[in-house]
């Protein structure tokens, strides 16, 4: 067996025999063998690629049914997008924090910026506020900084597209040279009458046309691909910088205020695409013309000689200087137009966002005035820009088209009139002096047509170079706006606010600490300050606040409007800076997936419920689990059945059936009512089950029974509530109260404690003292009724009650009442209107109701204040309303209406 194995040829021996066979084989056999080998390898590779693609499509289709997103361990997301019968795989990789740190120097320390690297200051103040958009050093720095984002590395997709674009540009230039030479040959053969060569020239012309058309189409296609790639890089970079844990999407508008001429949406949706299109076209509008300029100049130098070349160079330099001096500031004008467009768009966005309020006020005329004024300013600016462009375009066209064409004809004539200075054309002219007139004319025709084609191409390249100065100026304006956006986002993200003399409570005067990871909510010496836009300082609303909320300590924060209740929530959430002191709160947000288990303090988690309910775009399921996605919900083990239990808790179990299921997509802010929106927000609290929940007016649009049910459910699940409200009826659901007086003062007290007991006792003593006066008022009322039942005359005799003539009663009894004059046709009740009694009847009746109130107060628990007891026993009515309702029967029994011709005594008897 061993001897037999040694007889087998080795692999190296077979390879050597194969190579020897290839060397001895003819050339066509070697080429055919190499082609077959490549085809076989390509077939194996294509088979594996298609198998892998089919596997990805099957995985994608299975995910699309439930969830089209997969999260990887490095934070990347894989999204399968369905398209017809296939799925496209898209991988979204987040920007690394180290990338932001590396780019921060480029955007926060620009050359020429104000206070750039000043002594004693850790860094610059952001974008160069004192630099105007234009072709200067600042524009170069801004463009290179943005290019570091758009082309992150040499092995990126964008770099490959640029390289491929450059190859097609060079190929197009070479084809232009071929076309110019071929054009001259065809004209020469046509003039000479050589049909065979002329026909062959036409065939070659058609053969060159195919590659030329393909190159032109690919140049435009690759330019569009480069623009999309640039926009994708910048948009994802800005989104990662804008939407992160630093809350840049809130702070860039409410704290920074550095963006001028529109909001972030204007910059991202309008200025960014224009910048990417101009940057992608700049590569072809500068790269190819420059390459054409160099190549065609070299060819013309050889054909026309040094004199023509020097004239052409002088013409280009003079034209560039002349047009540069007379060119309007297109960069500044483009930036101004973008700013005006953003302001006008902001007016429309403001109108759409507040359409209902404006409709209630009927403010259409005033809003139309704002829009007309904004459009008028935009129209005037655009008309001025177009006027400048018309004048400049007229001058530019005359210089580039007509003056350059005239100079081209002069340069093309030099080999004919000055052969010694005509280069190769002049040399050919001198060599052909002995030939016939026909041959010289055909050669001249060929040289002229070739040089003309080259000069036309050169003029086109030079014209595009001149036009590119205007494009560069417009690009500078859009570059400055995009650079300003990224710079402001970097400043907000890194909190790079520095000043040698900061204002009090400005963004450079933040000395507090926000600690995340505490099992509770704690404020120690924290002033509540409404921040001002940088670099202005803020306004202190509440003085140094000290409060601590641990697990189970439900707190009610109350106070008048504008006292700072919502401001405290903004400071705890991190929306507003902590200028002084310490704020501690849990780190996490959600504890979803507990399946009804109570939340403990060590789980952490805090969730904030804003006063205005927010409904996101998406399905009904997304409204309940927000800010979770469906993938997050599946990951924690929650199902649609669990969501139905949550909706049933907040009395919204009918929503899925009414709206068409969990996967229904609608404009939910228009579909749901106010109460349903608030209950959806409370359903999110129950779904996420945080250890602490900060609620801002959470039940203002729901009934009292649903309100009590929701609070009891949250407490059963172990959620500690911090409620911001002006409703005193919510005190019974809390154990602590932080009261704000609206003047910067505050006090924290335990509900049902000694302080509140003392307040209730004082209220009861005051009411008891008033009740003691009720008996005297009743006696007074009886005496007045007796006296009013008598009618007196001047003689002191009583008059029959049937008297119908005019009677004047006078005199004064021992009680001090004045007399009443009863005229004919007038009732006694009208006559006694002007009688000045010591106490009015309404006062006596109001005092009669105090006994019932005091009795209810004395039987109420001391843990509730008078306001809570009154609210629960009188259904939210005021004390005056209760008193009037309580004595309605007494009032009707004591009043007596005197009809015409009837005495008051008869009226009382009848009553």
Question: What tags apply to this protein structure?
Answer:
911 residues; alpha/beta; six-stranded mixed sheet; four-stranded mixed sheet; 32 helices
Commentary on this structure:
- The chain is of the alpha/beta class.
- Helices cover 60% and strands 9% of the residues.
- The strands form 4 sheets. It has a 6-stranded mixed β-sheet, sandwiched between helices. The protein has a 4-stranded mixed β-sheet with strand order 4-8-5-6.
- The longest helix is centred in the middle third of the chain and has 58 residues, at 437-494.
- It is elongated and about 140 Å long.
Kindly, what is the distance between the CA atoms of the first and last residues, rounded to a whole number of angstroms?
A: 139 Å
Q: Tally of extended strands?
A: 15
What shape does the CA trace take?
A: elongated
Radius of gyration: 45 Å
Mean pLDDT: 75
| Secondary structural class | alpha/beta
Biggest sheet character: 6 strands, mixed
Stretches where pLDDT falls below 50 for ≥5 residues?
Answer: 1-5, 113-130, 801-911
What proportion of the residues is helical, as a percent range? 55-70%
Fraction of residues in β-strands: 5-15%
In short:
The chain has 911 residues and is of the alpha/beta class. The protein has 32 helices and 15 strands.
Helix/strand layout:
Layout: H1 2-6, H2 11-24, H3 27-64, E1 69-71, E2 77-83, E3 86-92, H4 97-108, H5 137-150, H6 157-192, H7 195-242, H8 248-256, H9 264-304, H10 306-326, H11 330-353, H12 355-361, H13 364-417, H14 423-431, H15 437-494, E4 513-516, E5 521-530, E6 539-549, E7 555-558, H16 565-573, E8 582-585, E9 606-609, H17 620-625, H18 630-635, H19 640-649, H20 655-659, H21 668-671, H22 674-688, E10 692-696, H23 704-716, E11 720-724, E12 736-740, E13 746-750, H24 754-772, H25 774-788, E14 807-808, E15 821-822, H26 828-831, H27 841-848, H28 850-859, H29 866-874, H30 879-886, H31 888-894, H32 904-910
Parallel strand pairs: 4-8, 7-11, 7-12, 9-10, 10-11
Antiparallel strand pairs: 1-2, 2-3, 5-6, 5-8, 12-13, 14-15
């Amino acid at each position: 067996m061993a001897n037999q194995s040694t007889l087998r040829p080795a692999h190296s021996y077979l390879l050597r025999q194969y190579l020897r066979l290839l060397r001895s084989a003819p050339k066509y056999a070697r080429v055919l063998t190499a082609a077959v080998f490549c085809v076989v390898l390509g077939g194996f590779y294509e088979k594996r690629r298609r198998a892998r693609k089919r596997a990805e499509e099957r995985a994608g289709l299975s995910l699309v049914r439930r969830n089209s997103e997969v999260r990887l361990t490095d934070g990347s997301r894989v999204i399968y997008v369905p398209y017809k019968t296939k799925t496209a795989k898209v991988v979204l990789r987040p920007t690394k924090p180290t990338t932001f740190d590396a780019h921060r120097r480029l955007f926060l320390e620009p050359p020429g910026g104000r206070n750039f690297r000043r002594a004693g200051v850790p860094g610059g103040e952001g974008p160069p506020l004192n630099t105007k958009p234009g072709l200067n050093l600042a524009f170069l720095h801004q463009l290179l900084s943005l290019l570091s984002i758009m082309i992150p590395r040499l092995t990126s997709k964008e770099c490959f597209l640029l390289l491929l674009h450059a190859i097609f540009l060079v190929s197009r230039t070479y084809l232009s040279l071929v076309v110019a030479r071929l054009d001259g040959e065809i004209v020469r053969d046509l003039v000479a009458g050589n049909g065979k060569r002329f026909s062959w020239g036409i065939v070659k012309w058609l053969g060159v046309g195919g590659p030329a058309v393909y190159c032109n189409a690919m140049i435009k296609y690759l330019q569009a691909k480069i623009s999309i790639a640039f926009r994708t890089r910048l948009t994802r970079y800005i989104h990662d910088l804008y939407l992160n844990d630093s809350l840049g999407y809130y702070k860039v508008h409410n704290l920074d205020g550095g963006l001028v001429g529109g909001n972030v949406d204007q910059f991202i949706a309008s200025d960014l695409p224009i910048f990417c299109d101009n940057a992608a076209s700049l590569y072809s509008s500068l790269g190819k013309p420059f390459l054409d300029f160099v190549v065609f100049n070299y060819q013309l130098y050889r054909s026309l000689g040094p004199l023509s070349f020097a004239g052409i160079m002088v013409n280009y330099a003079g034209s560039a200087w002349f047009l540069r001096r007379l060119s309007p500031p297109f960069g500044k004008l483009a930036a101004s137009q973008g700013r005006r467009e953003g302001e006008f768009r902001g007016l429309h966005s403001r109108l759409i966002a507040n359409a209902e309020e404006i409709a209630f006020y009927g403010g259409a005329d005033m809003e139309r005035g704002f829009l007309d004024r904004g459009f008028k300013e935009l129209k005037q600016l655009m008309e001025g820009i177009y006027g400048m462009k018309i004048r400049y375009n007229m001058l530019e066209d005359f210089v580039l088209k007509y003056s350059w064409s005239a100079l081209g004809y002069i340069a093309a004539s030099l080999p004919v009139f000055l052969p010694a200075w005509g280069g190769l054309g002049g040399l050919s002219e001198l060599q052909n002096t002995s030939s016939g007139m026909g041959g010289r004319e055909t050669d001249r025709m060929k040289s002229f047509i070739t040089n003309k084609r080259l000069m036309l191409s050169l003029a086109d390249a030079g014209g595009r170079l001149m036009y590119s100065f205007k494009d560069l100026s417009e690009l500078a304006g859009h570059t400055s706006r995009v650079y300003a956006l990224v710079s402001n986002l970097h400043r907000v993200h890194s909190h790079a606010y520095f000043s040698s003399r900061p204002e009090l409570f400005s963004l450079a005067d933040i000395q507090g600490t926000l600690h995340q990871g505490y099992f509770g909510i704690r404020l120690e010496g924290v002033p509540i300050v409404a921040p001002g836009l940088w670099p202005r300082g803020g306004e202190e609303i509440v003085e140094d606040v000290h409060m601590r909320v641990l697990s189970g300590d439900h707190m009610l924060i109350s106070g008048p409007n504008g006292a700072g209740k919502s401001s405290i929530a903004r400071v705890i959430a991190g929306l507003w800076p902590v200028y002084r002191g310490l704020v501690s709160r849990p780190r996490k947000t959600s504890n979803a997936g507990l399946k009804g288990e109570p939340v403990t303090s060590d789980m952490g988690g805090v969730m904030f419920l804003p006063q205005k309910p927010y409904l996101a775009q998406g399905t009904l399921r997304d409204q309940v689990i927000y800010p979770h996605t469906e993938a997050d919900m599946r990951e924690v083990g929650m199902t649609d059945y669990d969501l139905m239990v949550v909706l049933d808790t907040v009395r919204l179990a009918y929503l899925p059936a009414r709206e068409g299921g969990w996967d229904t997509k609608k404009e939910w802010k228009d579909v749901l009512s106010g109460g349903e929106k608030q209950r959806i927000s409370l359903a999110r609290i129950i779904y996420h089950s945080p250890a602490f929940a900060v609620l801002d007016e959470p039940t203002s649009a729901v009934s009292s029974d649903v309100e009590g049910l929701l609070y009891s459910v949250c407490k059963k699940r172990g959620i500690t509530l911090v409620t911001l409200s002006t409703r005193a009826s919510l005190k019974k659901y809390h154990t602590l109260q932080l009261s704000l007086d609206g003047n910067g003062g505050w006090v924290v007290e335990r509900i049902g404690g000694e302080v509140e007991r003392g307040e209730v006792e004082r209220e009861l003593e005051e009411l008891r003292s008033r009740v003691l006066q009720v008996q005297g008022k009743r006696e007074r009322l009886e005496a007045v009724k007796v006296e009013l039942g008598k009618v007196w005359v001047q003689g002191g005799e009583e008059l029959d009650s049937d008297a119908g003539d005019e009677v004047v009663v006078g005199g004064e009894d021992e009680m001090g009442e004045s007399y009443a004059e009863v005229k004919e046709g007038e009732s006694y009740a009208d006559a006694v209107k002007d009688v000045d009694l010591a106490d009015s009847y309404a006062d006596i009746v109001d005092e009669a109701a105090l006994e019932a109130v005091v009795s209810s107060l004395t039987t109420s628990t001391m843990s509730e204040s008078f306001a809570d007891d009154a609210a629960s026993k009188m259904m939210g009515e005021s004390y005056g309303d209760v008193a009037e309702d309580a004595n309605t029967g007494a009032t009707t029994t004591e009043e007596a209406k005197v009809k015409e011709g009837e005495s008051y005594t008869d009226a009382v008897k009848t009553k």
